[in-house]
Amino acid sequence: MAKDHPTVLLVEDEPAQREVLSYNLQAEGFDVEIAADGDTALLMVQEVQPDIIVLDWMLPGISGIEICRRLKTRSETQKIPVIMLSARSEEVDRVRGLETGADDYVVKPYSVMELMARVRNQLRRVRPSSVGQTLTYEDIMLDAETHRVTRNDAALRLGPTEFRLLATFMEKPGRVWSREQLLDRVWGRDIYVDSRTVDVHIGRLRKALCVHGGDDPLRTVRGAGYALG
Ligand code: CA
User: Fold this and answer.
1) Distance 143 CA to ligand 1 centre (A)
2) How many whole angstroms from 71 Cα to the centroid of ligand 1?
3) pTM here?
4) Could you tell me if 11 and 61 are in contact, meaning their C-beta atoms sit under 8 angstroms apart?
5) What are the residue ranges in the chain where pLDDT is below 70?
6) What is the Å distance from ligand 1's center to 93 Cα?
7) 20-56 as b/e: b if 16+ CB within 10 A
8) Distance from the CA of 76 to the center of ligand 1, in angstroms?
9) How far is the CA of 151 from the centre of ligand 1 (A)?
10) At CA 78, angle to CA 137 and CA 223, rounded to 5?
């Protein structure tokens, strides 16, 4: 399955809460992965590489605070936004005081609408195209809601894979993406695709971007991968 939708890892031990949240997150168009305890949560972070984590504080096994602290000290996971759920506002104060590095806090009982808004808010920061934002890079404009791409105001025709590739590049101009990282982000982890497939689609994307003229904005970084600009 191609990874159009952001993946939310939901870590919550109470089945009723889990069900409500999972239902609402899916209704928002997110892929939802679930962990019911701290140890499973840590394993799943490695496995599913979520775009965001909704993390309950009180869990059996490793606590939410400890999970958050660990994730925020590792370079591979520290950029994943964490929204922490806790039972009382005094607890939130304590969690803050412990400097877990959580990106946001929500107090139970929370309004589901509010929590959804906060999830979108964090995603907007890390994956703008996944929440329907318009991205621009020099003369290229990508509208994630309508799937329209223009360059110098002229419409470009991109296949779905080229669109996702371009969105990935435009979220972080200048960042060098390895073929493996692009495979994970654009094709998803569940399917097997040869890394040369990436080169084929990069070639198509380049061609599409330059169809009305203009320089090739994509850069091949020898031995490393590709970057925009
Ligand atoms: Ca709990």
Assistant:
1) 39
2) 19
3) 0.67
4) no
5) 1-4, 95-98, 189-191
6) 17
7) ebbebbeebebbbbbbbebebbbebbeebbbbbbbbb
8) 26
9) 49
10) 55
CB 41, CB 55: distance < 8 Å: yes
Q: Which residues of 175-188 are buried (b: 16+ CB within 10 A; e: fewer)?
A: eebebeebbebbbb
| pLDDT, position 155 | 94
Calculate how far, in angstroms, residue 13's C-alpha sits from the geometric centre of ligand 1: 5
Q: How far is the CA of 14 from the centre of ligand 1 (A)?
A: 6
What whole-number distance in Å separates Cα of residue 50 and Cα of residue 69? 17
Q: Which domains does the chain have, with CATH numbers?
A: 7-126 (3.40.50.2300), 130-228 (1.10.10.10)
Distance 58 CA to ligand 1 centre (A): 4
Dist. CA 27 → ligand 1 center (Å): 23
Among candidate residues 222, 140, 208, the one with its CA nearest the CA of residue 178: 222
- Give residue 97's pLDDT: 62
- The token duo for 213 is 């003229």
What's the CA-to-centroid distance between 56 and ligand 1, angstroms? 6
Q: What pLDDT score does 227 carry? A: 97
Token readout for 55 is 């993390």
Per-residue pLDDT, 9: 97
**pLDDT tens-digit series, residues 79-122:** 999 999 988 777 777 766 667 789 998 888 888 888 999 999 99
